[in-house]
Amino acid sequence: MDRADGLKQLIDGVWTDGEGPRFSVVDKFLGGELCTAREASVAQVQAAVASARRSFEANRLDPYERYRLLSRVADLILANREELTATVIAESGVPWKDSDNEVARTAETFRVSAEEAKRLVGEMVPIQGAAGQAHRMAMTIRVPRGVVAGISAFNSPLNMVAHKAAPALAAGNAVVVKPPPATPLSGARLFELMLEAGLPPGHLNLVHGGADVGQALVEDPGVDFVTFTGSTPVGKAIRQSRGMRPVALELGSIAATIVCADADLERAAMRCAQSGFRRQGQACTSTQRLFVQREVLEPFTAMLVAETAKLKVGDPRLHDTDVGPLISERDAARAEAWVSEAVAQGARVLAGGRREGAFLQPTILADSPRGSRVLCEEIFAPVLSILPFDDLDEAIDEVNRTEFGLAAGLFTQNIERALKGAARIHVGVVHLNDASSSRVDLIPFGGVKDSGVGVEGPKYAMREMTEERLVTITL
Ligand code: NAD
């Protein structure tokens, strides 16, 4: 695909111009246009789904073949690491350190998916334990669902597409993926590499566009499973429109981290600064509420402010930059407005607070009032609020007092406090002695409450992307 020629859809193995409205992708730091493209039409979305169905029926890949092909994709990703990193930086504004790491993680997502393709198994069912059933055996087998539609968010433009496509293919499905219109380029390059690796072209369908294209994909009756990452309102709409058909939804959150007085405060401060501000706070697990035990509030706050001052804000292409521009100036202005609103209601700015264009300085707030948007809505920007607490149980009650439940961090050196806390914090992922944002790609990762349904991580996503079928054998 020649990028100067515009971004194309991949349908039935052919790179095709869109037939819908035109949109452009811009460099989030330099501001120039990276490419223009047309969105897919509804007919093209339907053609992509039909292609996936035909290919799924015609090209059943055995597990070892899936392993071989997905391993090859991992190799190709690493062979193209620099170019992919440059694309992620340009389209998302995520600094080099995190973009380069994202490319390595994407290869890992494919590598783990390839391995899991070889060990996708059901289980023996002890049917003989039922009265009069001694002449029978039973087991479950895992059967690919067929056509998996993946819809991804902007904040991790390459690895998120990988988390949609790699486990689906590893489980034996064909895919149709729709990346977000703000950051479609690295996902498109990944599809080129998957083609180059030798996966059946009809298995790999890619459509571009925004909400309308996503909606057309979700509503297509030929789609057997939808895996979606994005905001909670869109996730709820998808769930409604899919009715009884299965979905996995990785949604928003207001992640919290708790620091107890007995914690290793220096390490906690370093990890909380990263968890709050890395990727400009645009991670679903970014620490937005930081609960600190009152007796260490002063020293810990000083350490956190010092760690935050070390973060270099600026050109995402420089290798020592930590914080780049947000995905748009509009988003930075929205976050700034929420900060100003909190300040007008009594919050104090301990660090940052200033915005210039799409850049918002890493911002630490104290005394953010209960009910303020910085505490109650997902800010998706480098802003965290420090909240003192006296009693851990009360802090956990406060962590749980939100409709979200994705990830949380808890720093304490007391094992009893740690394990009791892990059991009480109502989220999908608890990191003990780490901050809320500490995902690695092979872990089961998913939220509870309004943060989603279903679990990612290749092994676990493959369970969702297959049907469990019971087989009995009468001897
Ligand atoms: P978004 O919901 O606006 O968009 C996500 C994707 O959905 C995009 O591809 C978009 O084009 C598409 N879309 C929009 N409306 C649609 C519709 N009606 N039907 C089908 N598709 C539709 O989210 P965003 O702004 O791109 O991403 C930020 C959000 O993603 C945050 O809430 C963040 O917490 C969440 N997120 C969650 C996780 C997780 O694993 N839980 C990871 C990253 C981001």
Write the layout of secondary structure elements.
Blueprint: E1 9-11, E2 14-16, E3 22-26, E4 33-38, H1 42-58, H2 63-79, H3 81-92, H4 96-117, E5 124-125, E6 136-144, E7 147-151, H5 159-170, E8 174-178, H6 185-197, E9 204-206, H7 211-219, E10 225-229, H8 232-242, E11 247-250, E12 255-259, H9 265-277, E13 287-293, H10 297-309, H11 329-344, E14 348-351, E15 355-356, E16 359-360, E17 363-366, H12 373-376, E18 383-389, H13 392-400, E19 407-411, H14 415-424, E20 429-432, E21 452-453, H15 458-464, E22 466-474
Parallel strand pairs: 7-8, 7-10, 8-9, 10-11, 12-13, 12-19, 13-18, 17-18, 19-20
Antiparallel strand pairs: 1-2, 3-4, 5-6, 6-22, 11-21, 14-17, 15-16
Helix pairs in contact: 2-4, 2-6, 3-4, 4-5, 5-15, 9-10
Bound molecules: nicotinamide-adenine-dinucleotide (NAD).
